[in-house]
């Protein structure tokens, strides 16, 4: 872990670049250079299994040649419907190595959505994780004439199932092992500018759009990231976000191939808190919701501790804030403050870092959604720099990143080396131009023309400002800015991010466009609110009754009042209501990165919203 007053370990690392002008070329160069080093690990039934670069290469070759035997041609699309696991990576690399186009589908998608995505992408081979995902594929298959074969990764429960159009991944590997090795010829059939992967947007305003990324745009992102985010073969990272999402796919997976960072796959999304403590990654990327949950867990744990432990934590985190304030201001951290900080570590901060699992982390990366600057300062006070990055699917997942040696919480950092970023002087919209920008939307030239102007600038839809140092700050999404009935422009995300800093709140949506005052829809943090209810003898039988209880309503009212105190009267929330349904990744109200979909929520809960204005 880097010392806050000496961040030399966060300087970009000089090494010989990994060659290759396509993703598979880069991967196979890594196999040749790092053959016997461990590339990935996965925990299954409590046991960690390791794979070296050579072993992964052998597996990918078998799957790729199996795809060739199935008839996959260069440029054909294969889709992967699975949770994040090592087989997802193998299949992705195999599709690319065979000259195909790889597309990921969220495992929470319904059969109708699977059908649409396979149809739109002209999928010819569909990998599915298990029996549950196979059922969706079989339901959609009748409407997919281009689909040649379904490949099941985990055939558990399908021992007596027989279908000529369905095979197991092991069977595909056996078929590939019997084929002559033609991957070199396949690799020559695809060029840097050819389509490599499809990443479908979440579809919050209509049907999902397939963002097309070439090999060149992906490698521009990866190599640009490598110049500012120091990682190498000695680093460990954790794989748990959906590989369908641009963050885990590009900034996680492909960047790890390039740097040689070892990947550790968690058992399932529910075991992340336990797995992170076990893995103790040295670099750790996640979404704000994850960082908020860790903070909430620490806050509740401190509240339950004895008075001595509470006092030690309060003193320790206070010293941490003193150190971080000096670092952020560029002031030297003197010997006395360093000594106090070491004592604070022994007293409490070391225990907090180990409790979370970030005691080996040199830095944390946060992105995919806005985050409270106070939360960044809290992690910095713990002794772990948190670097905010900003980007979107269309820009390869990253367009700006916070420099580790010159952090400014509340900013999204400076433009990444792979692109230019500027503010549109007329609209305030952030624009991006560079080699990392996508090729366009599949089958939607009109949408592509709307997204990229004649000069190659990608219109991001985010409104922001830039300062004299080249640091950018997001103020809101263009479509989300609220104009009240009194004509006041309100940035809802700023208020929402402050409320999400509460350990009792998971998410919130501010309402008030063309209204007389602001209101909010709030989703509570179930585990912490349940603990509050138990500690205060509040009766409840389920999530809905918990949200309805007067004591919980008063608790959230208090949290809202704390946030309101930071804002002008016109920007304060007058009324709110709590969602009475616990939402998960499979619910339509949430994006795959667990953010509430603003427009959908406002439509679905229109009646409750209107009640707050009567």
Plain-language structure description:
The structure is a single chain. The protein has 614 residues and is of the alpha/beta class. The strands form 6 sheets. The chain has an 8-stranded mixed β-sheet, sandwiched between helices. It has a 5-stranded mixed β-sheet with strand order 12-13-14-15-16. Helix 2 crosses helix 3 (86-97), helix 4 (111-120) packs across helix 5 (131-141) and helix 12 (307-329) packs across helix 14. The radius of gyration is 25 Å and the shape is globular. The mean pLDDT is 90.
Q: Give the overall shape.
A: globular
Rg, alpha carbons: 25 Å
Number of helices: 21
Oligomeric state of the chains? single chain
User: Largest sheet, order of strands side by side?
Assistant: 7-6-5-3-4-8-9-19
Q: Can you give the mean pLDDT?
A: 90
Q: Share of helix among residues?
A: 25-40%
Structural class estimated from helices and strands: alpha/beta
How much β-strand is present in the residues? Answer: 15-25%
Low-confidence runs of at least 5 consecutive residues: none
Terminal CA distance: 54 Å
């Amino acid at each position: 872990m880097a010392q806050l007053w000496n961040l030399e370990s966060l300087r970009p690392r000089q090494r010989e670049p990994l060659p290759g002008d396509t993703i598979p070329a880069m991967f196979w160069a890594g196999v040749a250079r790092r053959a016997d080093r461990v590339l990935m690990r996965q925990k299954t039934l409590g046991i960690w299994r390791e794979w070296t670069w050579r072993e992964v290469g052998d597996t990918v070759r078998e799957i790729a040649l199996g795809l060739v035997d199935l008839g996959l041609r260069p440029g054909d699309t294969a889709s992967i419907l699975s949770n994040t696991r090592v087989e997802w990576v193998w299949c992705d690399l195999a599709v690319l190595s065979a000259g195909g186009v790889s597309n990921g589908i969220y495992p929470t998608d319904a059969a109708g959505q699977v059908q649409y995505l396979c149809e739109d992408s002209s999928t010819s081979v569909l990998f599915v994780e298990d029996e549950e995902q196979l059922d969706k594929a079989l339901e959609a298959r009748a409407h997919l004439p281009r689909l040649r074969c379904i490949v099941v990764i985990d055939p558990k429960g399908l021992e007596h199932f027989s279908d000529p159009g369905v095979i197991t991944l092991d069977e595909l590997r056996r078929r590939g092992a019997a084929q002559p090795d033609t991957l070199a010829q396949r690799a020559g059939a695809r060029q840097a500018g050819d389509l490599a992967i499809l990443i479908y947007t979440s579809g919050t305003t209509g049907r999902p759009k397939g963002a097309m990324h070439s090999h060149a745009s992906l490698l521009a992102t990866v190599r640009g990231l490598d110049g500012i985010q120091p990682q190498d073969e000695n680093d460990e990272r954790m794989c748990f976000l959906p590989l369908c999402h641009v963050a885990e796919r590009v900034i996680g997976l492909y960047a790890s191939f390039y740097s040689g960072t070892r990947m550790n796959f968690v058992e399932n999304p529910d075991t992340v808190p336990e797995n992170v403590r076990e893995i103790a990654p040295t670099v750790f990327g996640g979404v704000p919701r994850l960082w908020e949950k860790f903070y909430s867990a620490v806050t509740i744990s401190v509240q339950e501790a004895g008075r001595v432990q509470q006092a030690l934590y309060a003193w320790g985190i206070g010293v941490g804030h003193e150190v971080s304030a000096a670092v952020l201001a560029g002031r030297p951290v003197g010997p006395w403050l360093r000594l106090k900080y070491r004592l604070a570590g022994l007293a409490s901060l070391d225990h907090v870092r180990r409790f979370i699992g970030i005691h080996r982390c040199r830095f944390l990366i946060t992105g995919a959604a806005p985050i409270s600057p106070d939360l960044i300062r809290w992690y910095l006070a713990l002794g772990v720099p948190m670097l905010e990055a900003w980007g979107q699917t269309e820009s390869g997942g990253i367009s700006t990143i916070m420099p580790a040696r010159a952090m400014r919480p509340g900013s999204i950092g400076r433009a990444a080396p792979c692109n230019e970023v500027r503010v549109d002087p007329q609209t305030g919209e952030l624009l991006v131009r560079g080699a990392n920008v996508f090729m366009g939307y599949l089958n939607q030239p009109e949408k592509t023309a709307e997204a990229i102007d004649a000069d190659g600038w990608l219109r991001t839809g985010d409104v922001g400002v830039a300062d004299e140092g080249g640091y950018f700050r997001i103020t809101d999404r263009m479509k989300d800015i609220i104009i009240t009935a009194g004509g006041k422009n309100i940035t809802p995300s700023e208020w929402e991010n402050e409320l999400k800093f509460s350990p009792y709140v998971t998410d919130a949506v501010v309402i008030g466009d063309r209204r007389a005052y602001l209101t909010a829809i709030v989703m509570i943090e179930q585990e912490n609110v349940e603990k509050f209810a138990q500690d205060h003898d509040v009766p409840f039988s389920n999530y809905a009754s918990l949200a309805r209880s007067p004591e919980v309503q008063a608790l959230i009212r208090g949290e809202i009042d704390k946030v309101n105190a930071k804002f002008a009267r016109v920007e304060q929330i007058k009324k709110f209501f709590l969602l009475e349904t616990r939402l998960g990744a499979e619910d339509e109200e949430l994006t795959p990165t667990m953010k509430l979909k603003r427009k959908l929520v406002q439509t679905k809960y229109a009646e409750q919203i209107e009640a707050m204005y009567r």
